[in-house]
Design a protein that fits this description.
Length: 129
């Protein structure tokens, strides 16, 4: 179902681009773009493409938005499928403790000597001249 939704989404993107490109501008008409003459002898008639293309654009846009929401829901479910907050907090605490131990080892201080809170650290001796 996921692959079908992605394929439909891509197809709707292409269809939307084509429909929008086919719509006439303010001063021109679609028939003139394909070599047709001006005046009332246009490709779709005097008001034919406006209603057809505007309805097609609205329909394609609505389906595009539906597939966008469905794909967002699929993505959210996939991300949250194996998520457990307690496990994630435990993993983060373990990572932070390991990083702290590595930093202490790099400083060559014994693990009980350093504190995470800078306010609890003993003041440094002022430099002597």
């Amino acid at each position: 179902m996921y692959l079908f939704t992605v394929a439909l989404h891509v197809i709707l993107c292409l269809v939307l681009v084509l429909i929008i490109l086919l719509q006439p501008g303010k001063g021109g008409d679609v028939g003139a773009a394909f070599g047709g003459g001006g005046g009332s002898n246009t490709l779709f008639g005097p008001r034919g493409p406006a209603n057809l293309l505007s309805r097609a654009t609205t329909g394609a846009f609505a389906m595009f938005m539906v597939t966008s929401v469905v794909l967002a829901l699929y993505s959210n479910k996939r991300l949250l499928a194996n998520a457990n907050i307690d496990d994630e907090l435990e993993r983060l605490e373990t990572e932070r403790a390991k990083e702290l131990e590595d930093a202490l080892r790099d400083l060559a201080l014994p693990p009980g000597m350093a504190s995470e809170d800078p306010a609890e650290q003993p003041p440094e001796d002022p430099p002597t001249p």
